[in-house]
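All the exercises in this workshop are built on plain-text protein records. There is nothing in a record beyond a sequence line and a structure line. A learned vocabulary of local backbone shapes supplies the integers on the structure line. The question running through the whole workshop is how a given chain folds. Here is such a record, shown just as it appears in the course material:

***
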Amino acid sequence: MSTDLDDPRFTAFGLFAEAFTGLSNRFNAQFDQHRLSAVEFEVLMRLARSPGHRLRMTDLAGQTSLSTSGVTRVVDRMDRDGLIRREACPSDRRSSFAVVTDAGLRRLDEVLPGHLELLQQWFIGQLSPAELDGMLASLRKIRDAVNPCATAGTDGERSAA
């Protein structure tokens, strides 16, 4: 075998993937308690943190881990559950907005205290402030390179992270 299996690039990405999987497992258990999937939580957070609590469907797809058709399915399900609603775009009849509802904001209010505790315990609390600053800068750099649409629909001053 000519490839060096000890290449530090494998190690870097492997550690990132292992950390992400471990954190996701801890978060998913907490989301389940609040009748949310990780994707639904991601959608609610993106919408709640966006100007007017809304995003165009295409921008929501760009900011999440979902395809355009995947966003449509999730939004349809969440709309049926009353967590978000669709609004027609007044300037483009082909486009629509996903908007978080009061019920969606209440569900976030239920989830966020426990989620923040988990973030602090298993993620933020593991790093010094300088380590966290460096990691955030690095993650934004990588995110912007691999997903240039990640901040689509934001007001430009807030991070989509």
Q: What stands out?
A: The two ends are 40 Å apart (CA to CA).
